[in-house]
Design goal:
The chain has 14 helices and 5 strands. The protein binds tryptophan (TRP). Tryptophan binds next to strand 1 and helix 8.
Amino acid sequence: MDEKDLQKRKVILSGIQPSGKLHIGNLAGAIRNWVELQDSYDCYFTVVDLHAITVRQEPADLRKTTYELAAMLIACGLDPDKCTIFIQSHVAEHSQLAWILNCFTPIGELSRMTQFKDKSQSHADNINAGLFTYPVLQAADILLYQADLVPVGNDQKQHLELTRNIAERFNNTYSQTFVVPEPYIPPVGARIMNLQEPTKKMSKSEENEKATIYIVDSDEQIRNKIKRSVTDSGNEVVFSDDKPGIANLMSLYSLATGRTFKEIEHEFQGKGYGEFKSAVADAVADYINPIRTRFDKIIKDKAYLEKVLKDGSEKAHRIAYKTLRKVYKKIGFVQF
Ligand code: TRP
């Protein structure tokens, strides 16, 4: 056994909501990093369908999106032999632990969550209790696996902080039970912006199709969207705050080719925006093409996908069950 096997690998958990189609911003900001992590950490990646129902979902759409997201994660390079991929609702312990953690979470702390405030505004007709306790379920996701690290974007930092508070509160009330997780800040994290309004992040909830590059877009669609993207005044390809459109295209080009901003500036010195856009369009189409091809294959092979998800949930359940039993015992529940 080599050193790496002897050393217990650190645990990483992250979740992604099955809502909307996956876009290149998700790939650049989250999934690409997950793929890097799977070789050195014990990774759990979950499609959080329980979280998704905090806003109303069409049943057929939810089922389809959940499958597609799982297939997409594999198409993007997550390898089921290296990491554990599962659907949250398949592992009952998530709901079970969430209930218990609810009893260790002051309402005041939940009221401060900015995501709750935002979502209560955008879904004013359905401010349900699940929306309010959403971060407690997220804490359960993380604490069940004794995760050391959680890769999260800025919008989720507050939820991770709450998770840490809950874990510490529980540990202090009883005895050491949960690992208190740390945020994982990825070494690379390109922020991909909206193609039509490059000061806004590319987002699943964007209504303007032209603003977003979906991983399922055809080469043609990708090229067209990039060619029609909003650029800035001037004509020089340089990375700068007052050129958000060009900066975004440079981020995309860098993602697709692995080149640095300096190298890109050099490559396009003396060339106009038109030539640059064409190059970005081709590079991004070529980058996404093999992912889409793999996705098409996986989504047609339902037997394979279901096997991956079944194996994933069984593995996840074994770990989650152990944690939950420990929690039951500490609380004083009669053993089952
Ligand atoms: N709330 C996260 C989001 O909206 C998704 C999520 C659910 C998650 N459970 C998690 C992220 C656990 C990290 C860890 O992006």
